[in-house]
Design goal:
Radius of gyration: 18 Å
Shape: flat
Length: about 120
């Protein structure tokens, strides 16, 4: 996350202290702490397939809240609109994912391994 923020700041030619980025990286996922009290209950619920959609909705809402905090924090730090921040984050995330994926494809045949892995499902 800090690498992604640093790339966004570098692309936009801004200057933000590393301490601010570090504090932001700890502040953003703090909403995931609300998932801990129900962790044991969710673990037991996942034993029954008919409760999987409810558990998925719960985790989806927590992750959506975390993404909202991330975009809101970037908007405040960089003083841009939420739409502009979403586009920037999507572009930088795509660059990171495709860069790492391209490296592993070149050196370790990632697509062939994924094809082999998903045959079992």
């Amino acid at each position: 996350q800090s690498l992604e923020i640093k790339m966004l700041i570098y692309i936009q030619r801004r200057s933000i202290k590393f301490q601010q980025i570090l504090a932001f990286c700890f502040w953003t996922p703090s909403s995931l702490l609300f998932a801990f009290p129900l962790a044991i209950a969710i673990y037991r619920v996942l034993d029954r397939p008919n409760f999987w959609p409810a558990a998925g909705v719960y985790f989806g809402l927590i992750l959506l809240w975390t993404a909202g905090r991330f975009l809101r924090g970037l908007r405040v730090m960089l003083q841009y609109s939420i739409l502009h921040m979403m586009i920037c984050v999507l572009v930088v995330s795509a660059l990171v994912v495709f860069g790492v994926g391209g490296y592993f494809e070149h050196h370790h045949s990632l697509i062939a391994y994924l094809d082999y892995f998903f045959r079992f499902f």
